[in-house]
Amino acid sequence: xxxxxxxxxxxxxxxxxxxxxxxxxxxxxxxxxxxxxxxxxxxxxxxxxxxxxxxxxxxxxxxxxxxxxxxxxxxxxxxxxxxxxxxxxxxxxxxxxxxxxxxxxxxxxxxxxxxxxxxxxxxxxxxxxxxxxxxxxxxxxxxxxxxxxxxxxxxxxxxxxxxxxxxxxxxxxxxxxxxxxxxxxxxxxxxxxxxxxxxxxxxxxxxxxxxxxxxxxxxxxxxxxxxxxxxxxxxxxxxxxxxxxxxxxxxxxxxxxxxxxxxxxxxxxxxxxxxxxxxxxxxxxxxxxxxxxxxxxxxxxxxxxxxxxxxxxxxxxxxxxxxxxxxxxxxxxxxxxxxxxxxxxxxxxxxxxxxxxxxxxxxxxxxxxxxxxxxxxxxxxxxxxxxxxxxxxxxxxxxxxxxxxxxxxxxxxxxxxxxxxxxxxxxxxxxxxxxxxxxxxxxxxxxxxxxxxxxxxxxxxxxxxxxxxxxxxxxxxxxxxxxxxxxxxxxxxxxxxxxxxxxxxxxxxxxxxxxxxxxxxxxxxxxxxxxxxxxxxxxxxxxxxxxxxxxxxxxxxxxxxxxxxxxxxxxxxxxxxxxxxxxxxxxxxxxxxxxxxxxxxxxxxxxxxxxxxxxxxxxxxxxxxxxxxxxxxxxxxxxxxxxxxxxxxxxxxxxxx
Length: 657
Known about the structure:
GO terms for molecular function: nucleotide binding; oxidoreductase activity. The chain is of the alpha+beta class. The chain is 17% helix and 37% strand.
């Protein structure tokens, strides 16, 4: 490479907010770097560019790079814009520095990495902590046996954030926006450094380093994304890595990573590059380390061929975690009773201590019995997370709280369940719900009263998760107790949930056995049995997303809501297009009960236990259903093929007796 002393020509995309810090960094690099262009949707005032000349301004980074002959494009834009802008800048001839997180999805990250490889240009990811010499120091200590065998890695971060932080831009606090991934959560944006640094000290940076991720995501603020969360990352070598963070702390604590060993621990405060070795019987050993500026490193790469400190390959494991968070259930809300609203933001009582305990014990918030934590179980098919089972939702009594599946996703990541929809807030994903069990409402919402209509009654029960008797990544066996409004047992249930491959999708098998706990015959009623025509809901029920469109429902011999509602076809298919223009199809298989179908008012499919007459539960009743979940709009022939393939895996239904 021919060396030159000419300043590297730089275009900055995103000069407001955090992007303004790059203006100061470019001033410090005067003589080595020259700002020749600014790409922003808002003009940058002259005073912000003082000392940086009169750079060209525009809103198309590729065109700006080409027009200015820029050699570097710095991208300090919202995360969803990173990949498309990086590809445009790379193809226009510039090397790029992309702010963290590099992309909101693995697919977008890979597009960017492939473009860098294809063009032969450098791509630096802006994880500043990875430029620290402290990481190498920690790894040398661990490799040298300073703390014995490593038992795990923890990371903790507690910061306060005012309400204005979550309204700083239209994408702030969002997981998705206009059908696009955003992922502006605590784990993936402000504390993304905690995740990537924990992986780096563990020596787990490349693709394939992560074997699995458990997520525990919450929000106290009125946002979509997480502001208080934990993840447990299982590395390919079996090492557990737990990262716990919050933006709802009463005060700022410097975030840190701690490597636990059998004979001590090493703690790295990654914001100050301070490393402390702690061993029983010895005073702490503290060292401080330097760090390289990633923009300076990229300039040196362009001019002198210096190796990049943070190429995409060093952040691939981070993106595996990011992808798991993207596909995880939406963060659960934390009730007002657990928080205080202060001028500095929402504060969760005791959260800083919980975050530290999680990093110390390598535990999730649910395992630490945080009062606001919601236990959930993740299920995987074809090597991908496809469903989450919520065991103990914290909901009003009027919703008839019950364990349920949500979100359920296709292999392509399209969500095909909905919970707490505005039209029927008591609809909870996929599960089992009955509106009248001996006069008790286990469905939620109003109770239908003969000759009166729907009415609010104090008759709501709940399904209480009593425990698992078997559990694997592919399913579980659960015991539940259906308790009436007086807290007394009405039904004891055994529920078996399994997932398995069913190309081109996957199959969910759910079997439930209801045992009468009252000692007397127990009538099960639907609203239809009490005089409301067609309202025969009750039993297995699947609520699909209300924002889906172009809904189609059909069986082997009929099509449309009116034709299939009440039919007893062995299978039924529901297909639609998501709000993000992604088609999907669900194929339901069972032959014990009539189908309850809604697609006009809302999309919901059920198997009706009591169609037009009450069902009397003597001792026990068993039902089973299989649901094949697939991307794309399947036709009748393909749905029939999937239904036939799914049928042998079902448990044969038994009658009430």
